[in-house]
Amino acid sequence: MERTFIKPENENSFMQVFKYYKCNKPKPSLDNVLSLENKIFGKNQIGLYSAPTLIEDLRTELLGLTNVKEWKAYTLLRHPGLILIKNPFTSLGQRYWIRKCLEQYSKKPNKTNIDTEMVLNDWWKECFKSGHCNSKLQNKLRWTTLGYHHNWDTKVYTEDNKSLFPEDLAELCDCISKYLGYQNFRAEAAIVNYYHIGSTLSAHTDHSEVNLEAPLFSFSFGQSAIFLIGGPDKNFEPSAIMLNSGDVAVMSKEARLSYHAVPKIVSALSQPWSNGESDKEICDNMANLKYITDRQQLILDMNRNIDNKEWNLFKNYIQESRINMNVRQVLHEHQKSLLDVKFFKSYFNCFLFILNSISNPSILTKNISFVFQS
Ligand SMILES: O=C(O)CCC(=O)C(=O)O
């Protein structure tokens, strides 16, 4: 079915497409939504991404990933720099990362949207304090920030607003970035987004990082999302992509600064966190780990999710929700901190950008305001 848009006078292409997919009555046609799972490419011209060197990385097994030789990655002609890796996770791996986002990354010292309302050191534990699930509290969590904390008001990272970046997530990003040929990517900041049916994320670009040449890694788990990616301004008509559980979207090169948004969460057609292989234990394979200091703990944390009783609470959450881990490098390769004077030039550029934005507000676009409606 062809989609029809009625374009109000002052509406840009991005907004029209966003509204089209957000709408529930009538429901949008999904004919033009690219889906790697169903091999539906709509009107998108896609290419196979060939990894520069396919060297086996033993870390994959410990991080809940399949062998790199099995990974399938795609590029889109309309969006140079966007790479989509079709779910490279094992079922047990999906369980591990979903659980991490819920049980660990939501804890202090990480920051969450709930902080402005109440002080909670351990949101997940608090949700089950009374012996049953406090679903009102559970649904309150919308985001947590890790490493350099994203400042939602100023959009500027600072040295006095950061905590340790999780070792396991840094290792995961290192593994994937090496596969893509990036030798020096360092995960330094992340936003973990928690979506429910009805949640949306409005159009924005991510440009707070000093280093905008490094790629951005976006991991999706749980229910699916219609993800829109456009170009450098909102007049570029965005493409719609169905992101399913386990899919990794990498925004690099031109796509790093492209507008993107999530107009709709849709029920997943399959549950890759619950298929048969989640009962296979992983064992130490002596892989060289770059960031993880306690490999035995990692193996223990991975294998404990085989037990369906342990996994059950997390399963209940993810049956209704989507989690997105959005990971960035903040600093330049040799930069040690934001206070590193050698990199003053970057700040100066940033200052110029802000000045520019004041005279031309349309480029002040990091309006990552959440339009969640549950
Ligand atoms: O949820 C997603 O897929 C995108 C999230 C995002 O764009 C962000 O956190 O900046």
TrEMBL record:
Transmembrane segments: none annotated. Coiled coil: none annotated. GO terms for cellular component: cytoplasm; nucleus. Residues 186-331 form the Fe2OG dioxygenase domain. GO terms for molecular function: broad specificity oxidative DNA demethylase activity; ferrous iron binding; oxidative RNA demethylase activity. Keywords: Dioxygenase, Iron, Metal-binding, Oxidoreductase. Its cofactor is Fe(2+). Fe cation binds at H204, D206, H260. Gene3D superfamilies: Alpha-ketoglutarate-dependent dioxygenase AlkB-like. Binds 1 Fe(2+) ion per subunit. InterPro entries: Alkb, AlkB-like, AlkB-like_sf, Oxoglu/Fe-dep_dioxygenase_dom. It comes from the Eukaryota. GO terms for biological process: oxidative RNA demethylation. This is Fe2OG dioxygenase domain-containing protein. The lineage of its organism: Eukaryota, Metazoa, Ecdysozoa, Arthropoda, Hexapoda.
